[in-house]
Amino acid sequence: MTDSTMTTRQKVEASMKRRRSAETRFRVYGMASVLFGVLCLVVLFGNIFGKGTSAFTQTVLTTELTIDAAELGVTSASTEQELRNADYEGLIKDHFKAAYEPKGRKERRDLYKLISVGAAWQLQEMVIENPSLVGQTLQVNLIMDDDVDQWFKHEYGNDSGSIRLSEKQLEWLNSWAESGDLHTRFNTTFFMNGDSREPELAGIRGAITGTFLTLLVTFLLSFPIGVAAAIYLEEFAPKNRLTEIVEININNLAAVPSITFGLLGLAIFINMFGVARSTPLVGGLVLTLMTLPTIIISGRAAIKAVPPSIREAALGLGASKMQTVFHHVLPLALPGMLTGTIIGMAQALGETAPLLMIGMIAFVVDVPGFINDPSTVLPVQIFLWSDSPERAFTERTSGAIMVLLGFLIIMNTAAVMLRRRLERRW
Amino acid sequence: MAIIENHKTVGNPLCDSAKLSARDVCVYYGEKKAIHDVSLDIGKNEVIALIGPSGCGKSTFLRCLNRMNDTIDICSVTGQILLDGDNIYDSKVDVVPLRATVGMVFQKPNPFPKSIYDNIAYGPRIHGLASSRVDLDEIVEKSLQRAGLWSEVKDRLHSPGTGLSGGQQQRLCIARTIAVDPEVILMDEPCSALDPIATAKIEELIDELRDNYTIAIVTHSMQQAARVSQRTAYFHLGQLIEVNSTDKVFTTPQHQLTEAYITGRFG
Amino acid sequence: MEMNFNQHISGQFNADLEGIRNHMMSMGGLVERQVANAIEAICNGDTRLADEVIRREDDVDKAEVTIDNECTQILVRRQPAASDLRMVLAVSRVVRDLERIGDEASKIAIHTLEVTDSKAPQYCQQAIRYMGEEVVKMISGALDAFARHDVDGAVEVVRTDKSVDKQYASALRELITYMMEDPRSIGQAISILWILRAIERIGDHARNISEQVIYLVSGTDVRHSSLTEIEETTQK
User: Fold this and answer.
1) Does the domain at residues C11-235 carry the CATH identifier 1.20.58.220?
2) What mean pLDDT value characterizes chain A?
């Protein structure tokens, strides 16, 4: 092949076939791996979306209900306390007993079970909000039990029975469904309620608020500390053994398993300083520890990326070190630092492990009002629900994952947009 | 070629009306000696060109003159550099006022990513040279006029300085340096990134600035050194080989190395 | 690392400089021959040789233009400095002097034709022969000094020019006496005068060439200086 009579061109042409096939092969490998990734993503998203979208609707029964003043023992002039203490559950039960005349205790219980316990609270809230409703007959959409909800969303219409519902219950349900009284609507409960043992009443508002408060604490702590540390290490720290050790440790910290930070938080913040457990405050502190290395490393990279010529220009004019950093280096490095911070925050947003260690796994029904109220966060909420046996929690798990993904996408988009906006060319 | 041991600078390294005088200046990067016992005067209102092959120490020497080398940790300087008779390496001297007096223009045009106005106004602002907005406007206009840039940018003072052409950016940097009203301007290959027309404009500017400032310019272009300077200093491997009037250096250099370098026999 | 300071980094630059120097030398050789032939023509009354000299004058002119052009090219392309610059400038000036010498040689040849046509007696034969030999030696001496960067040789040429000038002056006086004795010989004498004048000019041009050698080597411009001044500068 390579005899000396061949010209370079001939030799090159002879090798072309081999080179081209190598190129094609490489392209195929590349495409295959991209395809694999996309496929995984599609399966994952398909799975989550397939399961999760139904979490955003809720089954309700439209029915005419008289808010009987005598039965409740209140009038429209009653105080809020009296209105609150009235027996709405009894009212609903009586209404259904009168309407469907169940025979015997078992049937009665079956009938009552179709309605969620939340329906009574629903009525209670309506009345407290508007006491003039007392004595009126009105159309209400009563929240149904999670078993009904699941049956109506998934099994209604395809003739299969249900293990969790009796013949009689199905009879009632089918009649309601045929009359159109049983229907689905947008699930405001999912967004407006905190956690609950009853799947149809469980919502993510507590978790979202908790997440927001935790991230707020994390941001307020980690951004200033991280930026300050990055500036000091990059611009002011003398280059000696000590700073080298600090540097290596920061880089190592970024690779430490996050649960370790949870242990650290437990040991230091809760046991040593007595910060209340399960609160956004302690969660934020722990996540700060976790995101700091990311922010410092990205901050230092952003500072390093500022061209030395800008520094020289400022120093050459007689600006002091401090002025050079704060007037020129920092503004130019800020977009990079913010991007790093947002990415760190996004990482913190999805973090579960360290929070488990500091008690944020607790079952918290109330929506936290401030950073020292017990609360949970979205990923932990997802973790909790995924562990629950009720079928209705499965769809809520996926629904919560979708919300979390939505937040992540929003944060990453914000990072990209912020970068585009603030970035200045030099 | 071997380092010439204990070379004594030929020509006239000293002059009568010295603005800056270096005496026995040695510069070390860690253990490595980068500049060997350089003694050189830079006269008032003269343009002195520092030439020499790459790595000869001319830029290092230039950066000693306003202590820009301080920013490099491992760099140390011995000997004396006198500005109007005062040693700038004295422990009492603060680099901030020194650098305001001895300004510097760099190889690559490096305007701040701010408006043209803010670029010029930055120096006067940090040094508190303007008492009012009107004062500052005046400084900006005067500096731009001196740098020959006023007519080109007066309608877009608030557009970014980085949007100018390379040559305009470099003149902006010169204007920025002038705005602080220094006494000496150091230029480190100011035209190496510019096209010939822009270079010619800068050279013209240097010629005009000579009336008010003392200028030291490092250049790789021997033609440029010949065009803009009154005296030329030739550096070779950290030693100052020869200093003479520019016309003498370029027609009849005294030292064999100078001759070899400027005629293109090495370098 | 060892470096050869005689060589430029650019080999083509070396070749270019070498080129103008060699062309100048061969032009110098041609001019030297022209002068020698012209002198021989006048001394021997050889009209054929005189014709030859006049014919070859063209070659000298062409050589001047060519070399001058080469010098311009080097100036434009290489921006020479220091010794290179002096070399180019010196070559350019020397070539001009050589061309003038060529002109003078052809002038001698033209007058030779006039003088030999007339049957009148030839004056100052001795002086012409002697001065002629002197200036030919001066030309070759100056060119040698140029080739060898030899300042002493150049100064020697300047010295010789001094003695040629003296001989010219005495030959002039001799001619005047002839003219006073016999006014009919004035026409002839004027032709001889032109020839002597041409030889003397050749000496001056040879001196100019030597001055360029001093400029080339030491960088000092010694044009329009006296011999003592030149000796002083070259002694340093």
Assistant:
1) yes
2) 87
Decide the pairing of beta strands B47-51 and B231-236: parallel
Query: Do the chains contact at C8 and B264, CB–CB below 8 Å?
Result: yes
Distance CA B174, CA B145 (A): 11
Taking one residue from A and the other from B, the number of pairs with CB-CB distance under 8 angstroms is 69
- From chain B, the residues in CB contact with A318 under 8 A are 95-100, 123, 126-127, 180
The answer to whether B266 faces chain C, any CB pair under 8 Å, is: yes
Instruction: Write down the architecture of domain B10-110+184-262 according to CATH.
Output: 3-Layer(aba) Sandwich (3.40)
pLDDT at C59 over 70: yes
Question: Which residues from A are below 8 Å from B when comparing CB atoms?
Answer: 238-239, 307, 309-320, 323, 327-328, 332, 424-426
Distance of CA B199 to the CA centre of its chain: 15
Nearest one of A278, A283, A266, A287 to A375, comparing CA atoms: A278
Name the minimum distance, in Å, from the CA of B258 to any CA of chain C: 9
pLDDT-based confidence at residue A426 (cuts at 50, 70, 90):
very low
pLDDT digits (tens, 9 = 90+) for A45-59: 999 998 888 888 888
pLDDT < 50 positions in chain B: 1-3
Task: Output the CA angle B12-B15-B17, nearest 5 degrees.
Answer: 170
- C–A contact (≥3 CB pairs within 8 Å)? no
- B64, B71, B169: best to mutate for the A interface, most A CBs within 10 A: B71
CA distance C152 to chain B (A): 19
Q: Which residue has the tokens 């409703």?
A: A133
Complete domains list, chain A, with CATH = 58-185 (no CATH), 205-422 (1.10.3720.10)
Measure the CA–CA gap between B111 and B172, rounded to whole angstroms: 7
